Structures are given as C-alpha cells and as structure tokens.
Amino acid sequence: MSTIRDVAAQAEVHPSTVSRVFSGNAQISEATRQRVLEAARELNFQPNAIARSLSVRRTKTIGVIVPHVFDGYFADSFFPQLMAGLLEVCYERGYRLLVGGCDGYQDEHIQALDILATRQADGIVVTSSRLDVDTVGELRRHNTPLVLIGHPPAQHADVAWVDADNRTATRRVIEYLAQKGHRRIAYVGGDPDSSVVKERLEGYLDGMAQAGLDVQPEWIDYGYFAEDGGYQAVERTRRDEASAPTAYYAANDLMAIGILRGLRERGIDVPGQVSLVGTNDSPEAAHLSPGLSSLRVPYRAIAAAATHRLIDAIEKGEQPAGHELLESCLIERESV
Amino acid sequence: MSTIRDVAAQAEVHPSTVSRVFSGNAQISEATRQRVLEAARELNFQPNAIARSLSVRRTKTIGVIVPHVFDGYFADSFFPQLMAGLLEVCYERGYRLLVGGCDGYQDEHIQALDILATRQADGIVVTSSRLDVDTVGELRRHNTPLVLIGHPPAQHADVAWVDADNRTATRRVIEYLAQKGHRRIAYVGGDPDSSVVKERLEGYLDGMAQAGLDVQPEWIDYGYFAEDGGYQAVERTRRDEASAPTAYYAANDLMAIGILRGLRERGIDVPGQVSLVGTNDSPEAAHLSPGLSSLRVPYRAIAAAATHRLIDAIEKGEQPAGHELLESCLIERESV
DNA sequence: ATAATTGATGCAATCGGTTGCATTTGCATT
DNA sequence: AATGCAAATGCAACCGATTGCATCAATTAT
User: Fold this and answer.
1) What is the pTM of this model?
2) Which of A97, A204, A325, B91 sits 20 to 30 Å CA-CA off A275?
C-alpha cells in the first residue's frame, strides 16, 4: 500500500501538499491538485485512517458495548432497534460504529472503559445502566464524550441522556387498565437492579395510587426479561386464585408471552378473565392470538437522538449535556 | 492523557521499556516492571490503541457493512443473529467489530472498500453479495482478509465463504411438500439479483424435478423480502384459482406472513386448502395462527464460523480460504 | 518602480507507540 | 583475573499522516 510520500515523490511535490489535497481544507492550485490526484490514482493510494486519527486525535468512530447477558437479547426488538438508530445517525453524519461485546455487567463496564481509554472512539453511548455498578462515574472520569440511553443514576444527574418516558408510560398503562375496571393489577418487571425496571415500578405505583387501588406485594414480580420468567410469575402470583390479579403488565413482550402461556395452561382466558399488556411491541406481538396489546417504546428514535447528541458534542468539543424523554405509545390489540 | 514518555520519565526508564512492560512480550526485570506499573498508575496511563495500531499495522478490529436497504431488515431475525454471531466470536478472540452503515448495494460496496483501504479494520466480512455489483472483486484487489457470508459469485470461486445449504434445504422443503401430496408448489423468492435467491430457486427447481412435477412460470414470484411482496405474490399467483398453487414456499417469514394475509383475505384456509412454509424461523413464526412452518437457517452459527475463519487468517497472515456449508432445519408447525 | 499583499508550497516537528540492534550489567566458567 | 554469555535496558528510526510557520512567486496598490 502506498503512502502519502510515494504520491508526493511521483507528483514531485512535498508530502504536505498531498495531505492538503486529500484533506480538502487548504488552497491548492488546480494544476498541482490534478497532478497529485493523478499520481494517487496511479499508485492506488488511499490515506491511512489510523495515521490520520493519530495525528488529528479524532477517529470518526463512536463506541457502544452490547451486553449479551440473557438469551433473548438478540431476539427481542430492543437490540435491532438500538442498532438501527445508532447506525442510521452514524451513517448520516459520516461516523462508524465500534461495537464491543461483553460478558455481564461488570465486564460491560471494563470494555467501555477500554474503548475510551485507548482512544478507539471519540465518544460512547452507554446502554445499560445498573444501579449496582458505577459505570457512569468511571466513564466520566475519563472525560470522553458520553451519552446514556436510560436515566442516569442519581449521583450523575448531569450526564447527558435520552430515554423513554418509562415511568409516565407505565403509569398510563396502569390507569388504562384500571379504567377498564381492573382492580388487581400485577407488575412483572425484569431485572430489579436495572434502572428501567425501577422507573417502571414507580410508574406502576403511581398509576395504582392515582386510581386509588391497593397494591399487594405478591403482585409485583420480576421475570428477569425471559419468557420463562413470565411463566413463573404466573405461578407465583396465582397461589390464591380468589385474590389473584385480573390484569398483568409485563416489562417486555417475551415475559408477556410467558404469562400468556402460564394463564392458558391454567385454563384462564385472555382477555375474557384476565387482561395482559406487554412492552416493546415486538414483531410477534401482532401475531399472537389474542393479539398482544403492547407498549411501544421508541428505541430506534432514542438511539438516534442519543447519537446525534453525542456527535454534536464531539464536534463542538464539549461534553454532551441535557436530556430528552421520548414518548411511548400503547398499541391496543385484543389482549385487554 | 499521559503518554508512554511521561511514564518513562516518572519511572526513570526509557520509553521503550514502558512499551515492553505493556505489550508483554519481552524480558523485563520484576523491579523495573513494578516501577513502571506504579508510575503508570500514578499518571493514570493507558496505552493509546491508535498509535499502537499505526505502529504494528494491526487494529484488532474486523469490519462489517450492514445494509439498510429494506424496511424489515432490522426486524427480521437475520440481522440480530448475524450480529450475535459476529460479536460472540469477536469478543471471544479479543477483537472489536467496526460497523458501517450504507445506503443501497452500490454504497455498501463503497463503504466496505473504504474501511479496508483506509486500514480501519484487519479484515472484513461481507454479507450481501449481489450478482450485479462486483464487490468481491474490488475487495480482493486490496488483498485484505475477506470472508463472504453466502456463496461467492462464479468468478471468485476461491474466496473464503460460509453459507447455509440454501439449495439443498430448499430442495428438501419442496420434496417434503410434494410428499405431502402437493403438485402445484409456488416459490416466492425475494430479490432475484441476490445470490441466496438464486440458490433457493435452483433448489426449488431441483425439488420439483426430483418429485417429477412440472413448474409453471407464474408459480415463481419475487416478493422482495417484504410482507407486502408476499401479499402481492398471492394476487399474482392466483389469477386462475383452478390452476393456482396449493403450497407456497417463501424465502423469508415476512413474506410468508404477507402470503398468509393474502390467502386469508381470499377465504382460503391454511393449512386446509393451501400449505405454507416460510424461512428463518423468526420469533413471530411460532406465534402466528396457524403456527408457521419455517426453514430455520443457522445465521448465528454462520456468522460465527465466518468470523473464526477471518480471524484465523488474519492471525496467520494469510488470505482466508476454504468454505463451510451449514445445515438448515425445517421447523414443522401447523401451516402445512 | 517599489512596497505590500495574497496564494501556493515547502519544511520540520508532532501525534504515541514499537522494535531491531547495540550496549551495559551481572553472573558463571575456566 | 580474564572470558563468555545471557538478561535487561537504551537508542533511534519508523509507522503515515497533519499543521504552524517560513518562504517564494505573482499580483495589486501606491
């Protein structure tokens, strides 16, 4: 592979001239520009992006760590939508996306740090925030641009973030169910250490309070985002059929499907006897029978907004700031 | 951010010694190692990966271009599975994944070239191969390691590749349908310029021939991988109900869903009057009613195998070679 | 005709590591 | 005491661009 110096020799100019021709921002006479371009073509020259990055201290790359902590992760619509949003904006703005895998929360933290500390990316979007690992704090110490998808933990309230209105949206779902006449509503949440789940739980409690309904502790269950978790939640919440919930809100569709299966096995009709609302509006939600009502969370838009925010900040040379809350929307189908 | 020279000064050694401590492969006395490590800790030093890459001419990164050419792309299970396979192996082997977006086939080609030519990645996995754009040829001229997911075009038979046994698998599905008594079987294919579709079509023809069945040209339709394409395929193939197909094979589940909708609107019962087999075993396939029989293509395993092959070659300093064909498996549900 | 200005290009230091080769040091051999 | 050897470290060139400053030529202003 030829370098800028080879081209310079061939075109009989100084390497810096070649550099200027390729990086655009400089005055070059049309004659030499042509000569350089011609030489470059002959030698099949392409500037080396790594060398350029070293020199300008910019990689035109943003990083993201994707956790593969539970099995359904890649199947659920969260991941594809996230990627779609990230890629869409990266592409639009001339960036690439550097994706690192990781193996559990602790490791996610390590990987993210590594990408930033070693300057492989100009900034990073952080997706999962766990309350028990201070990823955000560590990351900020490096002061590399950072945008969070999800709410920031309390001690980092000033970090930039974009999220769905989980709390409000969940409250609305509960109010909607209450308004349909349900008085015993269960919440099946996912991993209780994640902040999304905490927000949703707050929304649930808000909604119940708003509707003037009592909450039984056994109506709150964590299905850990997996289908089987939903299935088991049914078992746990229906020990006593007389006081069992008449409606379920599940924090993702996978769990909702598990709940549906659990109910069906007990001969409970949905929506006849029990109503069910899922979250994410996964592709399968529409095709279940009964069609699953689901809270559609605008993940793609969230990822896109976060990426814009990040790139804006990178290009201004500032730390990203501010936040956005995007609205979710309940898709009504037959399960209520 | 501190550099290797700062650490060297602090530890009173030569920069090259610091380098050796961090890159591991050299003999360093335990005493100086400790001194260097200590200095590094004090200065919060992390080696700069970009500088390292420039020097060693390796990025520990592999590239992939993901096309967002049609809408269902991110929803279909192909994309998440592909990413899962790529990431799994990259992570395992200490690589990162550089993802570039693109906008159509021509551009995919350009982006891939760019990643390689500018040395942003040590190798690349190419996913879509179109017969009308010689991406592979261009890419090979750069002789950077390259593995294809899918069959190579005829003129590049020696490039490394990994694929599903599309032709055989499709043939088997046709034989299976024929064996169930179907004599008029339709093929709804997707983009006819893509090589997958060509392979599937060959498999279809093989299967029909094998079963001694005639093929009518109007039974072959291209739904362009979208649900609506499937829907329209029903219209096109059922102008004359008397000679219309009694079974459909669709090259993805989205199209199968479209076909299902088309048939339902015409009051045709599945599987009572017409049978249907989709491809990919998307999450929704199981939850349709009737449950959609679907050919499960092991995309995740394919991506994983391709990545292994690529990294093996990179680390040996060779061009990847050879190929693998992974078996698909028909998941039987109620739609047949 | 001379000075001042502008435009185009060259020069050389720099970005932050790596690595082949040379040198020094410490220790074992004879 | 002299020699040989290996382990540890230093030296300096290099990876391939970028960029502030200097220089020189060609215009323009006076």
Assistant:
1) 0.90
2) A325
